[in-house]
Amino acid sequence: MWMKLLLIVALAGIYTQAKEDGRGQISGEVEEARWRVAESPDAFKVRLSLKSALGDEAYTWNENELYLFRAAMAYTMRQYYMAEKGQQVNFTSENIVTSEVTPRISFFFYVTNPDAAATITKAEVEAAIRLSRGRINSAFLLSDDTLEFVGLLATLSPPAEPTVEVWLIVFGVVIGFVVLVGVFLIVSGFRNRRKRKLKMDDDDDEGKAGEEIESGGVTNSGFEEEDDRRTQL
Amino acid sequence: MGEQCVAEHNGDKPEGASSPEERPKWDNKTQYLLTCIGFAVGVGNVWRFPYLCQIYGGGAFLIPYLIALVFEGLPLLYLELAIGQRLRLGSIGVWNSISPYLGGVGVSSMVVSFLVCVFYNTLLAWVLWYFFQSFQNPLPWSQCPVNENLTGYIEECVKSTPVNYFWYRETLNISPDIEINGSLHWWIIVCLGTAWLVVYICFIRGIETIGKAVYVTATFPYLVLTIFLIRALTLPGATDGLLYLFTPKWELLQNPQMWLDASTQIFFSLSVAFGGLIAFSSYNPLHNDCQQDAVVVGCVNSATSLYASIPIFAILGFKATSNYNSCLDSNILALTNAFEIGDQNITHTNYEDWLTYLNKTDPDTVFKLDLTECDLQDFLDQSASGTGLAFIVFTEAVISMPGSQVWAVLFFIMLFSLGLSSMFGNLEGVLTPLLDLHMVPKWMPREVFTALICIVCFLMGLIFAMGSGNYWLEIFNTYVGSVPFLIIALFELFGIIFFYGTERFCKEIEFMTGKRPNLFWKVCWMCISPLLLLVVFLAYIIVQVQTTPTYPAWNPDYEHFPKTEIQPYPGWVFAICILLATVPVLPIPFVALYRLAQNITTTKQPANDTALKASVNKAYVPDVDMDLQRKL
After folding, report:
1. Which of B223, B222, B292, B301 is nearest to B29 (CA)?
2. A79 lies in a domain?
């Protein structure tokens, strides 16, 4: 009951708005009622997020921007037909039928064929958009997620290949450093040992330290030479 | 026998030199203190203590924690440092000296230290792997990889999160079940080999090289923690995390589980009963103030835990806030698109108002959107400890911080140096007893022997490089790293109280440091600490017995994936768990019985007496001094 009322009110609003604008004949053909465009099986929904993309530098969406969109889509279709089918089909902005723009800045559109009185299928439009996506985005200073074609499957970028090598490079650096330090320690250990062996051979009779009193006997580890607090016998 | 001959050789002299050599010494006291602090301060201070603080209501947890530190941790620490310094041997030699019946305590310490060495370095291997991976832009765990035909992201990653996927699939390549071993993963083996190589390099010349290495490994974590602290406090949401952490929930003090966890945390955090502390203090000069050292090490360890929990929780608060904001953003986007409201008309501040308004005007559409409930408290409650904290939660937080690579690199270097300094103690607890017992053939220099031990540990650690490795590591961590230590520490206390005598022990300490331990220490050693440990041990056993042993398995085919599937341990695995918990402590009764049998069967009574007395008196200096004088 409420839904019906809402629908009637909405329709009335759209109708009065269309009449009030007093547009020319050609534009009147192009801008049809939103719900009529949306019902077409070949319609695409477009959604723009200007504030998210540009923040304070966001431009206001008006009729001229919509015209730019139509022109861009016409360009896209022309490029597609040229590239895929080798034909020069002269799409114009009139061939792109758009619906009303919501406060969200979203609308529906479909493409008509200038030569025949038919609608271009959704699949072809999709392929065309995929071909020239970058150009369409840059016309509006937007990107793939701020200028959305709802339902268009995104082609995901292939994974960057060098990921494996980066960590191996770091690993190589670390291992190299560790091995260098290790070799240095081992070599200097050998050198010290040789030096001390020579030194020991030289002053063997000195008795190196007081600890080696009992050479060949049992060292009392609990006994400390430098300890003078123990009562001597 | 072996325990009498205490000629310690250092790495510089070849064997075969007829003169016994002096025991290695620390270059200065700073090295010794830093080594002990480094051993005590490990990864657990960063990833276990903050978690406990959080689940037990922040400020309130500090009360049982500090009580456990004062009455359980410090006395045990003091005891180990004192006997090591006095008897100047590794754990086996020390306990053999105190009483031949207690020789098994030293053997147990060594076995347990060896087992901990094997699995602890695997943690370092994982840390190294993440460290190597942090040098990429963008970080590999920040986005899901694309599947083969480039149509979408890999399903396992989409269902869970990129961070989870990177940890469970790309790092561990974990099998869905502990019985499925999977294959050996070469990248983990490479990292494990690197970790062991670094440990070996630091150990090449014993404490000579360790003493130099700890200047870096023990101090660097503090530097990184400070940097993180400064950075974390400037992040949005940090204060939420800190408030959440430190708001005391006093009612939890009635929960006995809290007291149990506080005691176990202190006990394992201080790394007593490993034998490593005994080994380190055995290289000290005889008249070193070990009481002061014990208090310093214990307090620094606890202070580090507290200090580490501040940046950790600031960052977790930041992560919770980021997640909350993303949740709100996705809801806002859904509402904006469904109701064709102007872009960015709904903000975080007026979200609630918009939601109530839209719910009133068009509840059906709102319901169809299936909005997730965004609650900051829920995000803050998502806590984790252990590897989950480091490799899942923290890595996720790091993605949202500007300059992620720098923070990731710093974090993993910090974890690595924390773990490395703990590995020093672990390995020292294995090497020193073996060297003291002269188990090393004369022709083998110390470097080669150390290398041999490292290689053996590395080969055994290959278990953890398999698909089921993480499950086995949890088993080792739970069963080896808990009950055996409690038993060993209990026997250490009993050994001092009953076999050596507390009075005699205090006299020895007075001889060493010049001041007798006061009443507090005596009371602790004789009744409070053993009682506390006994209660903790019994409570631990009771809790373990009551819970059926299960483990969380990561199974992509599980119906409730990404939740982990709780599976019980199969019979043979559980048998291994029991073996791991009991075999390391078996030497204690075996050696005691063996010595008892020796005493009974030997007919020469006087020889027995002198043998017994000699080994006991060896620790008591004046008597042996008299013997020495007589020999001269």
Report:
1. B292
2. yes
